[in-house]
Specification:
Arc Repressor Mutant, subunit A; 6-stranded parallel sheet
Length: 201
């Protein structure tokens, strides 16, 4: 029996995922939650084989939670579900060491097969998305620049970003100038748009 934890913040979607997986004789949903912050503690108590995680969760996002699981509970394999099917998002997922990546609009039978594939030790990735990622441009930003841009994207000003990341406000302004330049953006807002559309944020 493959034990699965389901993390999805939309109640109807989570209920549908649990119901779909419940139809499979070899799969059992042992835990479910609605936020990224709940995933690790729940996995520590329920000990699932697979964590099926929506990429866009409140609290910790799905990729951060998946990376945390990989570090703290390496025996729990992760399958990311997303409606954001951009190549950049897939690259971020693979960098977070996820074991599978599936679009939410995939046929229902593909979900159960993806769970089985990941449980068997295979890496399961949506085929069209994998080809697109192969051809796509890599993110030109460093991990630190992405952190700065992510905080800027939620409205933090340079002083707030500096306090959050233990940097000086001047260093943060330099990072933001570099980010705008690297992305050939008109300004900070445009840089956020470009990064989001490319799946880098």
């Amino acid at each position: 029996m493959i034990k699965v934890l389901v993390a999805e913040d939309m109640h109807i979607v989570r209920g549908a995922l649990v119901a779909l997986l419940g139809l499979e004789a070899d799969i059992e949903v042992v835990a479910e939650c609605a936020s990224g912050d709940e995933i690790l503690p729940l996995a520590q108590s329920a000990r699932p084989d697979i964590a099926l995680i929506d990429i866009d969760l409140p609290g910790k996002d799905g990729l951060t939670a998946a990376a945390e699981l990989h570090e703290q509970l390496p025996g729990v394999r992760t399958l990311i579900l997303t409606s954001l099917g951009s190549p950049g998002t897939l690259r971020r997922a693979l960098a977070a060491k996820v074991n599978g990546f599936l679009r939410k609009d995939a046929p229902a039978d593909r979900l159960a097969n993806a769970v089985r594939g990941v449980a068997a030790g295979r890496r399961v990735v949506d085929g069209d998305l994998a080809l697109a990622a192969w051809d796509s441009e890599e993110c030109p930003l460093t991990a630190r620049e992405i952190e700065v841009l992510r905080l800027a994207s939620v409205g933090s000003d340079p002083t707030e970003i500096a306090a959050e990341l233990f940097l000086s406000a001047g260093t943060v302004r330099n990072y933001l100038t570099t980010i705008v330049s690297k992305l050939s953006a008109r300004n900070r807002v445009d840089a956020v748009r470009i990064a989001r559309e490319s799946g880098w944020l």
